[in-house]
Amino acid sequence: MDFTYDDEQDALRDAVRGLLTKAYGDFEQRRQTSKQDPGFSEKTWTQMAEMGLLGLPFAEDDGGVGAGPVEIAIVCHELGRVVAPEPYLHAVVLAGGLVAACGSAEQRGELLGSLAAGERLLAFAHDEPGSRWAPEATAVSATEDGGSWALTGTKEPVVQGARAETLVVSARLPDGGTGLFVVDGEACERTGYPTYDGGRAAKVVLDATAATPLGEPGRDLTASIATILDLGRIMAGNQALGAMEVALAQTTAYLKSRKQFGVPLSTFQALTFRAADMYVSLELATSVVQWATMVIETGDPVALHDAAARAGLQVSRAGRHVGQEAIQLHGGIGMTAEYAVGTYTSVLTMLEHLLGDGTHHLAALAGRVGEHEDLDPLAMT
Amino acid sequence: MQLALSAEDQKFREEMRTFFTTEVSEDIRRTVIEGRELTKEQIVESQQTLNGAGLAVPHWPTEWGGRDWSDLQRHIWNEEMQRAGVPTPLAFNASMIGPVLAQFASQEMKERFLPRTANLDIWWSQGFSEPDAGSDLASLRTTAVRDGDDWVVNGQKTWTTLGQYGDWIFTLVRTDPDVKKQAGISMLLIDMTTPGLTVRPIELIDGGHEVNEVWFDDVRVPGENLVGELNSGWTIAKFLLGNERVGVAPVGTTKRVLARAKSLAGDRAAEPLTAARIADLENDLLALELTALRVVANSTDGEPHPASSVLKLRGTELQQAVSELMVDLAGPASIASGADGSSALEEWTHHTTPTYLNLRKASIYGGSNEIQRQIIARTILGL
User: Acyl-CoA dehydrogenase/oxidase C-terminal domain: which residues (chain B) (predicted)?
Assistant: First the structure.
């Protein structure tokens, strides 16, 4: 039982923080970066590749580093602290994670090797109009003709779908179930647009578009998608923790410096108590997300699914609380795009809705509430 | 980072679980689990069973019965005890005055009191709060004036929990009225049978008699009953209140009550809003339990983890929320608090509202939750 980083993990955190502070320590840099396409810094992405961060989760044979979930969580946490717009979660954790889990040795080597090197951006094209965080695909279907596969239907929103060289697309299989396919970005019709958090998403239309099955053709990969979505939820949670930490720090700093009625805001107990409650939300969310990160290491998909929902619910509550209060305690300045704290709230809102909001997770947990007497985190070993 | 308990801690956990579920009287554990009130005799019997096995005061110095456990082991001990429905050792003895005497008292005083305190041969009461000195404890007015070898005590204490059972009371008294209010306070131990000492019950909203007023009218206390140095009471009180906050989030108990709520609720627990409410509470309790584990797992260097201040605040809120759930699950039957054995209603429903009302105290005592927010804002956030 240990909730602290070891020396190597500390060193990784320091290195990542150093890189990202250089890139986005000044919030204005983040703002300018997100104004121009593709909404993130290609230079920072390349530097992340050089540092080995883009290959962190993948096996060394596939061109990766072979690190564990705690290391990935550290990177996500640091990205969250500066609300970095780089699509690490989407390209590395989700799309890359699926290639690593389901791809053939050849596909892994080719796709992950170039992803890790920063030469190829992957996007995970999974959400569909009308879908709500399910692992199955319905609106896009796959057909096979003499060993050649083609996809038809619309995926949206696909984060960084217009910029990515390669898409990992989920689709309904002819015999049922959901498969995964590798599609060349140029082969589909893509309409990109900015999102409120400064990111980019796209509508991707497939029209009998040529696709290569990821791994063995025709295999139902719903369970693999579900697992990677759960992993993504926990990593998004780590990213949200970083954002919440800084949003709270900015709020407390503001309460100390801003004067009204001739005195600092921190002299008003009504305000300091609300900041204290933000801290409580953050600490409780931190505990659950760190625990869930450790549950990933057990490799048990059932335990992971439960932990992801629990982390998702806690982060949803905390993210809304911390984000909303951060703006309120800042007053009008918190509403401006020039000032960082509102963007932190935007990013927290995006992270929550990317992979499942609090109500979604609570409904799932409520449905299973009769299956256990009490929860024992120490039994999950 | 490592989720699993070490093999040693795992084994420790099994040992605790076995002891608590097999060695403590089944009758006492059922009383706790079913939410009925414990008698004084049951509380004493339970603590003596624990003390006989060296499990009543593991956090004391080893010389006086402590076990030199890690913080994590103490946490496991506490959680398993609550989980099994074993009454935790009387806080006034085990968590408050015991550690104070071990730290501040003379050798003679330690020998006189500590073994009997551990074994609950003496039932201690706490005499800190006064009508005008609650959260602002330093404003207390009860005086102790030197007269020959003795102290003469006059004044009034209030909210003296279970004072009707008390043999002795540890008090904070003003021994120097002419200095800054924190500087003129001392701690005295007072035999509650001394002439001039009167205990009067305070009736509470749950209909029970749990707290009391204690009046001192020229109560003569031997000079040797002073704890530590003269006028060092404030330092001692801060030490005691620091201990009081450790383990103040009753996670094990609240988990047990919530698990019981689910089983008692039957089909009602499957109604969507009720199921969601239960799932939400379970998740919040998980967050609290994990936070408690983070605190104990990371405080090995003796410095408390900053998040420890969250535990009292959130722990008592959840304790209250689960008691509220029980009332709602009982529905109209929750009104029948005074029903006797002839009642046609399920017995558990009688206890739900008194428990809910009684637990409103949890966010007030031990430093009210507003005080906890103040601590977080000041000492953690620097506001």
Answer: 231-380
Rank A372-381, B147-156, B309-318 by mean pLDDT and report only the highest: B147-156
| Ramachandran angles phi, psi of B17, nearest 5° | -60, -45
Check whether B117 has a pLDDT greater than 90. yes
**pLDDT of the residue at B125:** 97
Nearest to A57 by CA among A13, A111, A112, A107: A112
Contact A54, A48 (CB under 8 A): yes
CB B282, CB A375: distance < 8 Å = yes
Q: DSSP class of residue A264?
A: E
The pLDDT of residue B236 is: 95
A123, A130, A229, A335, B212 from A137: Cα distances, Å: 16, 11, 13, 37, 66
Angle between helices B272-297 and A301-330 (to 10 degrees): 90
C-alpha B60/C-alpha B244 separation (Å) is 14
Domains located in chain A, CATH noted: 7-120 (1.10.540.10), 123-219 (2.40.110.10), 222-370 (1.20.140.10)
Of B3, B258, B376, the CB nearest to A294: B3
Four-point Cα dihedral B105, B106, B112, B115, nearest 10: 60
Instruction: Give the DSSP letter of residue B208.
Output: -
For an interface test with B, give the residue of A233, A251, A369 to mutate (most B CBs within 10 A).
A369
Low-confidence residues of chain A, pLDDT below 50?
A: none
Q: Provide the strand spans (E) within chain B.
A: 124-127, 143-147, 150-157, 168-174, 185-191, 197-202, 211-222, 226-227
pLDDT exceeds cutoff 80 at B300: no
Q: Which of B13, B270, B377 sits opposite A275 (nearest CB)?
A: B377
Considering the segment(s) B248-381 as one domain, its CATH architecture is Up-down Bundle (1.20)
Residue B301, pLDDT > 60, answer no
Res. B207: pLDDT tops 90: no
Q: Where are the domains of chain B?
A: 7-89, 124-231, 248-381
Tell which of B288, B291, B316, B375 to mutate to test the A interface (max A CBs under 10 Å): B291
CA nearest neighbour of A57 among A90, A100, A14, A86 = A100
Residues of B designated as active site: 244
Long-range pairs for A335-341: beta carbons < 8 A, 24 or more residues apart: A337/A31, A338/A28, A338/A31, A339/A27, A340/A27, A340/A30, A340/A83, A340/A250, A341/A247, A341/A250, A341/A251, A341/A254
Q: How many CB pairs under 8 A join A and B?
A: 154
Is B124-231 a CATH 2.40.110.10 domain? yes
Would strands A189-194 and A200-213 be described as parallel, antiparallel, or unpaired? antiparallel
- Looking at residue A105, its pLDDT comes to 97
